[in-house]
Amino acid sequence: MRNMPNKRKLSLLLLLSLVLVLAACSGGNNAPGNSTGNTGGNAGANANGNAGGSGETAPVKLTYWVAMDGNASRSLGSYSEMLFFQELEKRTGVEVEFQHPAVGSEKEQFNLMIASGNLPDVIESDFTAYPGGPEKAIADQVLIPLNDVIDEHAPNLKAYLDEHPEFRKEIVTDDGTIYVFPSIGIGNRAVSGGLMLRQDWLDELGLDVPVTMDDWTNVLRAFKEKGAAFPFTARLGTFNATNAFNGAYGVGQNFYQKDGQVKYAPLEPGYKDYLAQLNAWYEEGLLDPDFATQDAKAHDAKVSNGDSGAFFAYIGSGMGRFLNAMEGQEFDLVGAPYPVLNEGEEPYFVNKPYEYRGGGSAGITPNNEHVAETAEWLDYLYSDEGHILKSFGIEGETFNMVDGDPQYSELIMDNPDGLSIGEAMGKYLRVSTPTPGLVGDDRYAEQYYEYEQQKKASATYSEHQDNADQVLLPRISQTPDEANELSAIMAEVQTYQDEMLLKFIMGSESLEDGYEAYTEQLRKMNIERAIELKQAALERYKQR
Amino acid sequence: MRRGLRAGPDYTARGPKQGLLRRRAGRAAAGLARGKGEQEGAAMKTLARDYKRHKYLYFMILPVVLYYALFQYGPLYGAIIAFKDYRIAEGFLGSPWVGFKHFLSFFDSYYFWRLMKNTLLLNAYLLLFSFPAPIIFALLINEIGRSLFKRFVQTVTYLPHFISLIVICGMITQFVARDGMITDLLVWMGMDRTALLGQPEYFRTIYVVSDIWQSVGWGSIIYLAAISGINPELYEAATIDGANKWRQTINVTLPGILPIIIILFILKMGNMLEIGFEKIILLYNPNTYVTADVINTFVYRKGLGESFEFSYATAVGLFQAVINFILLILANRFSRKVSDSSLW
Question: Which stretch is the leader sequence (chain A) (predicted)?
Answer without folding.
Answer: 1-31
